Amino acid sequence: MVAINKIDRPEADVENVLFDLENNGVAPEDLGGTVVCVPISAKEKVNINLLENKLEALAEKKLNLLEDHSMKAQCIVIESNIDEKGGQTTASILIKKGMLRSTDTFVCGLNEGKVKFMKDDNGKPIKEAFPGQAVHIGGFRAFPEVGSPLYVVEDLKEANMIVDTLKTRYK
User: Fold this and answer.
1) What letter would DSSP give residue 28?
2) What sections of the chain are H helices per DSSP?
3) pLDDT at position 63, please?
4) What are the pLDDT digits (tens) for 46-97?
């Protein structure tokens, strides 16, 4: 997406900018391409709502950024280790769908766990994590393998039932 700013200036030529973009390998929608271009004036606040609407539509259509945050999180383990200070198993995970909360119970591989702490990429404690966000969590009962899926479940009873079923299936 391209925001063509300063259209409030007398010398502004949106059409010329579109052709310049095309000549430099960016194909604007107005010229038959796929790149959304929105002429705006930040100073005069012209087309700011249009820009926001186009960005939201693009995110929903192309990037899938607008997820249902009320659904239980689906994640993937991207790194796992033993915390040097507390000796507990921790992992960095990427939230793929839904929202992860600092009170959630989960199944990861053939093990269950409960989030004991959750930190953002700056090491600051957080209570919620959203799709596309990587977080560091503790609360694993066993060492999770990198690449393992992590699914939030209702409670420890459900987690144990799922793990027992998986262990029986993979014996």
Assistant:
1) B
2) 14-23, 48-58, 156-169
3) 54
4) 999 998 888 888 766 655 555 566 789 999 999 998 887 778 899 999 999 8
What pTM was computed for the model? 0.60
d(CA 85, CA 146): 22
SS3 49: helix
- Contacts of residue 43, defined as CB under 8 A and 6 or more positions apart, other chains included, come to 6, 8
What count of other Cβ atoms lies within 10 Å of the Cβ of residue 139? Answer: 20
The residue to which tokens 């479940």 are assigned: 153
Q: Give Cα separations from 114 to 7, 15, 140 (angstroms).
A: 53, 56, 7
Q: What's the CA gap between 68 and 62, in Å, rounded?
A: 16
Neighbours of 159 (CB within 10 A): 22
Cα–Cα distance for residue pair 129/68, rounded to 1 Å: 13
